């Protein structure tokens, strides 16, 4: 199945970014109410995994896509995209209290931009190798600057260098997650890419939660409110949008579009939630600048269709990088 036009795919990713902002708010509130931040991530991933199991029963594309993956014989590391998603959940739980939300977010986006440039240059995503051009570097820098502007005025924690580098590494992990999941979807199907992501990330999240003592304390009193348990549903939609975006536009532009959607989602939450702070002008300007960064990064002298190593219209890349027709 051919990916949609880049503009359509990036619009879907922006919507996924908006869902990501809602997911973060939901998981944080659930973790706060039950008294353990990692339990929010556990509920998120278990909910997504449950939806994947339902999908295996009702979606032929998921079953056929997983079957195609068995025949594709991709390298083992191609299946590790979900580890990037699990890593950022864990790192956020430890880094945000130290750095503050503002510095953590900027560091994560900086890492995501670096990881996106590197992943595109290495050809990890199914669009093939994309050159390291001035517009792409400028778009990455503009995206980081836009997020820094959006975080203006938020509290800053301790600027611990080690924790800051971990936040950057988490952003790189998110970029690798998008690239590898896109590679899986190109070899199988978009639904298969989402399924593999949760199959990898959920055991890792459960392991981290167990090591953090989330399952060994007193019985948890689960709060009422159905919206607190929608993180998994939102997560499936977010991963699916990234899979579509990476196949059509590469890792860097997909990551920037996701960030733009996250900032737009933050604005919506500020407007809609009864006790949320007033929507801030820097966030609005940052969201617009991030979407501008997507356009700037797309001004490449070479399109995905003329990349160094790409996906032929007839099929996905083979493990050795050759085209499958």
UniProtKB/TrEMBL annotation:
<dbReference type="GO" id="GO:0005886">
    <property type="term" value="C:plasma membrane"/>
</dbReference>
<dbReference type="InterPro" id="IPR006750">
    <property type="entry name" value="YdcZ"/>
</dbReference>
<dbReference type="Pfam" id="PF04657">
    <property type="entry name" value="DMT_YdcZ"/>
</dbReference>
<feature type="transmembrane region" description="Helical">
    <location>
        <begin position="101"/>
        <end position="118"/>
    </location>
</feature>
<keyword id="KW-0812">Transmembrane</keyword>
<feature type="transmembrane region" description="Helical">
    <location>
        <begin position="226"/>
        <end position="244"/>
    </location>
</feature>
<feature type="transmembrane region" description="Helical">
    <location>
        <begin position="37"/>
        <end position="62"/>
    </location>
</feature>
<feature type="transmembrane region" description="Helical">
    <location>
        <begin position="192"/>
        <end position="214"/>
    </location>
</feature>
<feature type="transmembrane region" description="Helical">
    <location>
        <begin position="130"/>
        <end position="153"/>
    </location>
</feature>
<keyword id="KW-1133">Transmembrane helix</keyword>
<feature type="transmembrane region" description="Helical">
    <location>
        <begin position="74"/>
        <end position="95"/>
    </location>
</feature>
<feature type="transmembrane region" description="Helical">
    <location>
        <begin position="159"/>
        <end position="180"/>
    </location>
</feature>
<feature type="transmembrane region" description="Helical">
    <location>
        <begin position="279"/>
        <end position="297"/>
    </location>
</feature>
<protein>
    <submittedName>
        <fullName>Transporter family-2 protein</fullName>
    </submittedName>
</protein>
<feature type="region of interest" description="Disordered">
    <location>
        <begin position="302"/>
        <end position="325"/>
    </location>
</feature>
<keyword id="KW-0472">Membrane</keyword>
<feature type="signal peptide">
    <location>
        <begin position="1"/>
        <end position="21"/>
    </location>
</feature>
<feature type="transmembrane region" description="Helical">
    <location>
        <begin position="256"/>
        <end position="273"/>
    </location>
</feature>
<keyword id="KW-0732">Signal</keyword>
């Amino acid at each position: 199945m051919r990916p949609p036009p880049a503009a359509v795919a990036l619009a879907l990713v922006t919507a996924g970014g908006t869902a990501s902002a809602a997911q973060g708010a939901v998981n944080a509130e659930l973790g706060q109410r039950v008294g353990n931040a990692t339990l929010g991530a556990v509920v998120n991933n278990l909910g997504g995994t449950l939806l994947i199991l339902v999908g295996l029963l009702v979606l032929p594309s998921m079953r056929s896509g997983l079957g195609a993956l068995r025949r594709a014989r991709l390298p083992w590391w191609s299946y590790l995209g979900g580890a990037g998603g699990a890593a950022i959940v864990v790192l956020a739980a430890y880094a945000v209290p130290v750095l503050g939300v503002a510095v953590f977010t900027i560091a994560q986006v900086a890492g995501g931009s670096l990881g996106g440039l590197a992943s595109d240059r290495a050809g990890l995503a199914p669009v093939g190798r994309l050159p390291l051009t001035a517009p792409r570097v400028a778009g990455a820098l503009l995206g980081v600057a836009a997020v820094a502007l959006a975080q203006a005025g938020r509290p800053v924690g301790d600027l611990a260098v080690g924790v800051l580098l971990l936040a950057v590494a988490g952003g790189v992990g998110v970029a690798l997650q998008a690239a590898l999941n896109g590679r899986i979807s190109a070899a199988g199907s978009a639904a298969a890419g989402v399924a593999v992501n949760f199959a990898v990330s959920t055991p890792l999240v459960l392991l981290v939660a167990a090591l953090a003592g989330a399952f060994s304390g007193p019985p948890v009193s689960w709060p009422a409110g159905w919206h607190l348990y929608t993180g998994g549903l939102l997560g499936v939609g977010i991963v699916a949008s990234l899979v579509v975006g990476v196949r059509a536009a590469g890792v860097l532009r997909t990551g920037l579009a996701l960030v733009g959607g996250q900032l737009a989602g933050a604005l919506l939450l500020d407007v809609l939630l009864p006790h949320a702070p007033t929507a801030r002008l820097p966030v609005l300007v940052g969201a617009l600048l991030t979407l501008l960064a997507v356009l700037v990064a797309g001004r490449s002298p070479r399109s995905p269709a003329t990349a160094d190593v790409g996906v032929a219209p007839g099929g996905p890349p083979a493990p050795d990088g050759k085209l499958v027709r």
